Amino acid sequence: MFRQTLRAGKIQFARGYASVARTKAPLTLFGIDGKYATALFQAAASKNALTTVEGDLLKLDEQLSKDAKLGEIFSSPLLNKAAKEKLIDSLGKKSEITTNFFKTLLENNRMAETRGVIAAYKSLMEAHRGIVSVVVTSANALNSKDLKQVKDNLTKGGLIKDFKEVNVVNKINPSILGGMVVEFGDYTIDMSVASRLAKIEKLLTDSISFEKTLTDLIQGLRANKRNETEYIQQSLSEIQREVQQSDMSQKSVAIDKLGYLHMLGYDMNWASFNVVEVMASPRFGEKRTGYLAAGQSFHQETDVLMLTTNLIRKDLASANAMEVSVALDGLAQVATRDLAQDLLGDTLAVVGHPRPYIRKQALVCACRLVTRYTEGLHELVPLLKERLDDPDPAVVASAVSVVCELARANPHHYLSLVSKLYRLLTSSKNNWMLIKIVKLFAWLTPIEPRLAKKLHGPLSQLVSTTAARSLLYECIHMAVVGGIIDVQLPVSDSTGREVDFAELCTQKLELFYESPDHNLRYVGLVMLAQLQAHRPELVAAHYHTVLRCLDDPDVSIRMRVIEVISGMPTCKTLVPTVKHLMPQLVLSNTVALQPDRIATTTADVDLDELQSLPLTDAAGTSLVSVHGSMVLARDVGVYNATDNPKYQLAAAEAIIAIGIRTHAYY
Question: Which pLDDT value is given to residue 551?
Answer without folding.
Answer: 78
